[in-house]
Amino acid sequence: MSQSAVVEASGRPEPRFVRGSPLRTIIIGTIGSLLMTFGSFGIGWLAPVSGFRQNSFIILLRYNDLAVLACIVATAVGAMALTREWLRLSQKISAWDQRARRWVTAAVVAWGTPLLFSFPLFSRDVYSYYAQGRLYDSGLNPYESGVSSVNNFLQYGADQLWSESPPPYGPVFLWIEGIVARAAGTSPDVAFYLFRLAALIGVVLIAIYVPKLAAMHGVNPTRAAWLCLANPMFLVHFVISAHNDALMIGLMVAAVYVAARWRNHYGGIAAITITTLAVAVKPIALLILPFIGLLWAGKGASWPRKFLYWAMTLAITLVELWLMGLANGFGFDWVGALSTTGGVWIWYAPIGALGFLAKIWADSLGLSGGDIQSAIYKGAQVVGVIGLAILAFLGRDEKIIRRLTIGLALIVMFNPMIQAWYVVWLIPFFAATGIRTDWHVDFFFLTTVFFMMWAVSDQLDVFPYLDLDLNMGRLVAAVIALVYGVYLMFVDPSTRRVFRRDKTAGAIV
Question: In the chain, what are the helix, strand and coil shares in percent, each to the nearest 5?
Fold first, then answer.
């Protein structure tokens, strides 16, 4: 809705801070990205053997209490400033037209480019990828041997939690890990930048296909790009942290578009193959196969035809995965690794909190609280899968991709462990199929603000022998993020309007 429409609907003009050029917003957001990049040099994850630790500038930032504190403040303020400017950008756009598309593209490029050069923040999974790649490159089976089998694996940055855990990844990502390990040699620094490049491939796929999917659903492609690509959560977890989820989701979005655009044998088989590649990155991508099969079956397909195409979809996927397993010599060993992350929970996940409270209650009664907690977690995950299956069976043909989106959301919501990047899985699909300007967009905004506040205090690499210890550093980051988040929602005269739709729904979205 344009600002003129808003004026007509409300009878009064919008205040000046929902008008004007987006240039100032893009510049301030870029400053936020630069602050995060600077902060990462002091508190981002570096392997103990990293060559950067010998750089005089990095030494100054990482081994001085005041410098580390400055990096913590810069990271927290930068992340929250980027969040604010993402919200502000929509207020500065009067209509989601071609001109707005140029502004959104400029924002994504300007905000994302500095982050490409940062050290890993908010997660050190890239070092686990590197350790697994070194294991694979040494000729061992990563699904049978933990990364501790490689000499000095801790010195190369991997979390000790992965020492005996098989990677829950498929053969394609295992190949990528091996290629990176071979190219990086003994340099974990080269490795994490190469893994960021792999994640960037996924980001590019999302940038290409989310607008196309949005147009297919009658959703403004530029607005979808703003909701997804400029979103600070997306930039943080798919660029800074370089999670392999970026490549998986990029392939999934591409597969869904191909299946929906060409609903014939060529499109169906191509979409299945792309989905199989996504599965071979992270097997959770298997969940979209029933919906790919439905798109392949065509509009108005009878139940026998649907079941036939589901069977063919599964058969093609299994054959392709078998060929990949044959090529690397590990077969379907990755299936046994899927339980690697099982049994983990977190307090903000509804099912995680419920299971923990049930455990406390059961223990107080002398019952086996751990068993009850485990049963709740497993039962909830089954409920999520059943919900997704129901959505595959029921619903209109034109809502297939929306049903897929809701099904993925159920899988995430019924998981006791909701990592922030699990939520980012959903953003491209919801952005493409439509986020309404009611409580949907309110929840989307609040979720983004919450997970950005959580990210800045979740994982910091603080030198353990400083007076400023890790817990104090996390507390400082958490307080800054919380105060900034409260300011955005309740005090800032510009962004507080985002959370008061009765006054600004049209101007915001």
Answer: 75, 0, 25
Contact (CB, 8 A) for 45 and 157: yes
Locus of tokens 């400017």: 85
Rounded CA-CA distance 433/440 in Å is 12
* Alpha carbon distance, N-terminus to C-terminus of the chain: 7
**Tokens 């299945």 sit on residue:** 272
Q: Write the CB contacts of 333 (distance below 8 Å, at least 6 apart in sequence).
A: 141, 143, 144, 166, 325
329 backbone φψ class: left, alpha, beta (φ>0; ψ -120 to 50) = left
Burial of 483 (0-12, 13-18, 19+ CB in 10 A): middle
**Tokens describing residue 477:** 């980051």
Per-residue pLDDT tens over the stretch 488-509: 999 988 888 777 655 443 333 4
Residues 327-361 have pLDDT tens digits of: 988 888 888 777 666 568 889 999 999 999 999 99
Sign of the torsion formed by the C-alpha atoms of 379, 381, 386 and 391: positive
Q: How many CB atoms lie within 10 A of CB 361?
A: 12
Range list of H helices, 138-264: 171-184, 188-216, 221-228, 232-235, 245-261
Q: What is the pLDDT of residues 21-60, one digit of tens each?
A: 899 999 999 999 999 999 999 999 999 999 999 999 999 9
Rounded CA-CA distance 155/453 in Å is 30
Q: How far apart are CA 395 and CA 294, in angstroms?
A: 11
Q: How far apart are CA 484 and CA 257, in angstroms?
A: 38
User: Which of 8-17, 118-127, 450-459 is predicted least confidently?
Assistant: 8-17
Q: How far apart are CA 391 and CA 481, in angstroms?
A: 38
d(CA 333, CA 335): 5
Distances, alpha carbon 371 to alpha carbons 356, 363, 365, in Å: 11, 10, 14
**Strand, helix or coil at 9?**
helix
- Residue corresponding to tokens 């010195």: 155
| Token reading at 322 | 């078998």
Cα distances from 73 to residues 31, 66, 217, 449, in angstroms, run 14, 10, 42, 17
Report phi then psi at 138, rounded to 5.
-80, -5
Alpha helices in 335-368 (DSSP H): 350-364
Q: Is the Cβ–Cβ distance between 492 and 84 less than 8 Å? A: yes
Query: Distances in Å between the alpha carbon of 418 and those of 133, 135, 206, 353?
Result: 26, 28, 22, 11
Looking at residue 250, what is its pLDDT?
97
Contact 494, 17 (CB under 8 A): yes
Q: Give residue 116's Cα distance to chain centre.
A: 16
